[in-house]
Design goal:
Oligomer: single chain
CATH class of the largest domain: Alpha Beta
Shape: globular
Strand content: 25-35%
Radius of gyration: 21 Å
Helix content: 25-40%
CATH architecture of the largest domain: 2-Layer Sandwich
Largest sheet: 8 strands, antiparallel
Bound molecules: adenosine-5'-diphosphate
Number of strands: 20
CATH superfamily of the largest domain: ATP-grasp fold, B domain
CATH topology of the largest domain: D-amino Acid Aminotransferase, Chain A, domain 1
Number of helices: 16
Strand order of the largest sheet: 13-12-9-10-11-14-19-17
Amino acid sequence: MFKKILIANRGEIALRVICACKELGIKTVAVYSEADRHSLHVRFADEAVCIGPAKSARSYLDIPSVISAAEITNVDAIHPGYGFLSENANFAEVCETSGLTFIGPKPDVIRTMGSKQLAREAMAKAGLPIVPGSAGIVESPEHGLETAAKIGYPVILKATAGGGGRGMRVVNEASELPGMLAQAQAEAGGAFACPDVYVEKYIRKPRHIEFQVLADQHGNVEILGERECSIQRRHQKLIEESPSPRVSPELRQEMTARLKVAMKEVGYTNAGTVEFLMDEDGSLYFIEVNARVQVEHPVTELVTGIDIVKAQIRIAAGEPLSAILTEPVTIRGHAIECRINAENPDTFAPSAGRITGLNLPGGIGVRVDTWAYTDCVVPPYYDSLVAKLICFGKDRSEAITRSLRALDMFIVEGIHTSIPLHHRILSDPEFQSGDIDTGYIARFLAKK
Ligand code: ADP
């Protein structure tokens, strides 16, 4: 087992990894930017190294700085968390050549999964149903028009390197396609340094359903059930739950069997998520793989009792899944996660600043993963996630009621947060019915 791990991240996920390491008896090294000097991950790690100024390009994304910090502190491995360098195949390779274990899949697998287009090809080959779409990138407006005509409108243009809901455009008719293709390519080029775009069928009123994978380095794969992440604003998740109200035990069993085969075939190792869209008929279509731990992993932890981050570390150290998962995976009860963002709940404008007062809810079935404390400053440089409220209940209805009372007891003063928005959504009969799709938030906001 590793003796010391460097965490190449900040915020709640850096703390989450520190928790796992403490429980495994592993020492930790935090890295931080000048803006995060007073952060809790710096305080709770055994050692901490400042790796640069606030701007992430010069700190959390700066590979030489992170590797130097790992070398001077003499760590065995690096946990990348999510975001930042977590899906950077080049970084994973540099770790390996520097004699450091990268806690994640192998660089070539990260590279394939990092391209939505290559991932689609790999998953189709491995036997999973994919969203109907172009066989390769869209070379020209004419090529796009020809492919879209074959698929049938509406279609969606997507950046192969895309993430965070950027670089996507829904095209309702042929006349819109050339303009939207140029926009999607420009956005993708700017955000991901790769303008490649492909086209797929736009699924109407889909549910976003994703499966949690754990795979060891000995060819064993386990699936930890699914998460429903249909509550999204502008393709970004706000509320996630497990299990999905729409996935039957039979469908879960079938997908588990198919995914075990597919993930083994692509040589997947460590933790990952396979994302699908479910159409109105209940059919699932693959969209992408996230080759890292997800923000929403705690809902799976609560219903399976499996510590996903500890599993990641043990897998990276070479342990077989049989030693990590000592019992068959079972899903018990229901868990819901609300992402508490530092933003205005009505306008969604970011709300950085000092948290002047804070009360974190607790009690039975309530988990809060956060880096916030009274008097901490939410910097404007990074994503707006301040806390995750994750509530567990014996069923969906109890998980909702518990989340509502925890939201009542969750007080953040000094900045705006999405707490009031979550309260309204969880009180909404449409949400409570479980009959939700990715268009829910747009409808909900229009209703007000
Ligand atoms: P990103 O990597 O940017 O998060 P994804 O491929 O995971 O992009 O898609 C994010 C969201 O965009 C999905 O959860 C869904 O709401 C919407 N979306 C993506 N592809 C389609 C599609 N073919 N049809 C309808 N909605 C889609």
